[in-house]
Every structure is written in C-alpha cells, then in structure tokens.
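Reviewers asked in the last cycle whether our approach scales beyond single polypeptides. To address this, we selected a multi-component target totalling 224 residues and predicted its structure end to end. The input consisted of the following lines:
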Amino acid sequence: DAKTTQPPSMDCAEGRAANLPCNHSTISGNEYVYWYRQIHSQGPQYIIHGLKNNETNEMASLIITEDRKSSTLILPHATLRDTAVYYCIVKGYNFNKFYFGSGTKLNVKP
Amino acid sequence: GAVVSQHPSWVICKSGTSVKIECRSLDFQATTMFWYRQFPKQSLMLMATSNEGSKATYEQGVEKDKFLINHASLTLSTLTVTSAHPEDSSFYICSLVGVNTEAFFGQGTRLTVV
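The resulting structure, written as structure tokens, was:
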C-alpha cells in the first residue's frame, strides 16, 4: 500500500539541483522515508533514508518537514546519468516490505 | 551494501513451459528475500516474501501455484513461473533487506513468453 504522492514527471537542467518532492501526510511516528531510483531496465538503487532529521550522503540530501508530512530529495548537481524514476517510500523500521508507488520520472536535459 | 545477483538477466520461453529465476545474495545471509514484478511503464509490484526454510507468503492476488518460490539457503531464493503464458511476460526483480533496513535489489530478469 503506497502511502506517498509524487509528481509523475519533472525536468531538470544538467548541472542544476534537482528537487523531487514527496507527500506522505499519513506517515506514522515510527515510519521512515526511503528514496530509491530506477534507471531503465535495472533494479532499483537505494539513495537515502531518514526519520525526521535531514540527511545527506554522497548521492543526495533528504529534507523532511518538521511535521514529517512531506519531504524533498535533492540531487545537488544533476547529470544526464541521474535520469531515472525516483520512488519515495514510507516504511516502518521493523517492517521489511517495500511497497512502491508510481514515482517521479526525472528527465535531466543538457 | 549487500550485493544481490539474479540469473538469468533475460529469458525467452515458449508458452506452457516453466522458467526458473535465481536470486543470490553474494555477501549477506538473508533469511528473507522479496520478489517483485514490473510491467512496462508501471511501478514495481510486490509479489511475495521468500522465507528461508519455510513457505513463502504471497501478496493478495498473486497465485502461489503459479509462482513457486523456494528459499533453501540463506543466500539463494528461486522463483519458478509455471506454465508460463504471454501475460506473464514481465520484469522480475528480487531484493533483500540489509542490516540498516534499506533494501538491495537484483538487476532484474526480463521474461518474454512467446
């Protein structure tokens, strides 16, 4: 049961920051926000996850609003290889099943 | 992160035959693995949970006799599509959950039934 809402597609210029929003207004207190991406005809790739604090790693930053009802994945300098479908998933920490919503198709353009 | 390997990457089979897809965890002992199916231009759909040493559990609407799952060891789960038909043509993906609760996915298997 996908608990998230994402725009179906977004465009971003190469070299610019890509900001991908996700709405998860029904998130529970013990549920984390995970982000994955899927490049065409490949398995999904883990990007980042967080509970309530903002998170950053070598791939991206995750900004979670204070009420935790929405979040934004930021790719600081998008490249053509970042063109993919990005999935935002809400999941309880001790619950192992990942249910995918429809995701956002990010098109990075030269 | 964990490395998950699927085999084969693609397979073409005749209608009515069965096809087995392997999912291996190369560096992690997984008591649980997951199988997904993805049709063109659609999202991933969770099919079933593969449990080492016990029966798989299937999501609602997934035929357990159609999609046989075996998880005989901590590093191998197999999905057999029995009596495949063209409508079973899809992209099948397995995954496991690592120690930090993130999931790692195989590269997927493209099944085409002719």
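The first strand of chain B starts at residue 4 and ends at 7. We regard this as preliminary and will revisit it once experimental data from Aim 1 are available.
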